[in-house]
Amino acid sequence: MASDKDDRGGCRYDLEKLANSRYAAAMLLGGFVLSASVMALHLGYGPPLQPLFSGFRLPGRRRKRPIRVYMDGCFDMMHYGHCNALRQARALGDELVVGVVSDEEITENKGPPVTPIKERLIMVGAIKWVDEVIPDAPYAINEEFMYKLFNEYNIDYIIHGDDPCLLPDGTDAYALAKKAGRYKQIKRTEGVSSTDIVGRMLLCVRERSSGDHHAHSSLQRQFSHGHNPRFDDGKPPHGGTRVSHFLPTSRRIVQFSNGKGPGPDARIIYIDGAFDLFHAGHVEILRHARALGDFLLVGIHTDQTVSSTRGAHRPIMNLHERSLSVLACRYVDEVIIGAPWEVSKDMITTFNISLVVHGTIAENMDYLMEKSNPYAVPLSMGILQTIKSPLDITTSTIIKRIVANHEAYQKRNEKKEQSERKYYENKTNVSEE
């Protein structure tokens, strides 16, 4: 006769067998359902698999919403320094939202803008690292706007460069974002600012009006080499400006490059030019050119070519500066740095160019009357097309705006000079993404 202990052991054994059998049955049934679902999905029957796993998340695999970062600015006289700042900001998140300050707030805090907000919005929207644009953003982030950024635009971090951004009363424009612990800093791009570019134009205008052609060519060469010997001590003269100390590197070119070539059957469109003081007119003609094919190749003329065709005081921006600005444009796939003036048969073959295009608004349209037309070859091949320029803006348009309001911009530069000098004197190294 079995003991009570044996009875209890037998019961426990029977219960364990039952539990194990139920577990095995459940696993078998689950496997059958999963197999059937996969088979149904494969055959095109039934709903997708996702409902089977609704509410179930593997540890550490939970999906998070994209990290959204915000950066604002005037983006007046937009240049490769602005573009590099936006590139760095985008690297700190998954989506970049950019606020463009209104004309009124720029005038109040810095002086009159060179380019109106309509053109500045076109420029910012064309930068390939920008996902969303907020027009008429405030110059200083107040509590109301910061609340709107965090709650309506789902912004995680507010980004700005390591250079100071002070309000007229001397306070930090980003103090609230820093206090909230939602501020991140990026490295300022060396050697350029809107103040510098305005200063370059003012210098060119002064030297051109003096009638000293030797000074014109001298100044142009200094810009082309990215420096001005007269200011090599790093201190601009009183009321002057810091001329570019931009040092081009292969790494910067790679950072701006798409890194992808055209496909084997791609329709490659080619357009060339100086693209000096890259502006909204350039952006719009590039947008229209890109729409004509699969890959847009842009030729950037050398400083010497620009100087010989448009005057000794040009270009304002040197070849590498102009190339980076064009590369940052979302409609551009690749650039030729230092493209030849004439489009040759060999060049068309080498780059497999399907169509050469040119706009109706340009600095130099004299080539149409010249015997040595730079587009003679593509014209003879039947692959030259003129497209209507959407905006009546050229580099000369920008320069004329400066000249027309010379005194206001001179005062604006003098106002900025002190903060520019202070930044360079106190500058420390900031790592760059």
From TrEMBL:
Keyword Cell division: no
Composition skew (Basic and acidic residues), residue ranges: 412-425
Region (Disordered): 222-243, 412-433
Cited InterPro entries: CCT (IPR041723), Cyt_trans-like (IPR004821), Ect1/PCYT2 (IPR044608), Rossmann-like_a/b/a_fold (IPR014729)
GO cellular component, one term: cytoplasm
Catalytic activity line of the entry: phosphoethanolamine + CTP + H(+) = CDP-ethanolamine + diphosphate
Residue intervals passing through the bilayer: 23-45
Record-linked Pfam families: CTP_transf_like (PF01467)
One GO process term, biological-process aspect: phosphatidylethanolamine biosynthetic process
Family from the record: Belongs to the cytidylyltransferase family.
Name assigned to this protein: Ethanolamine-phosphate cytidylyltransferase
Source species: Dendrobium catenatum
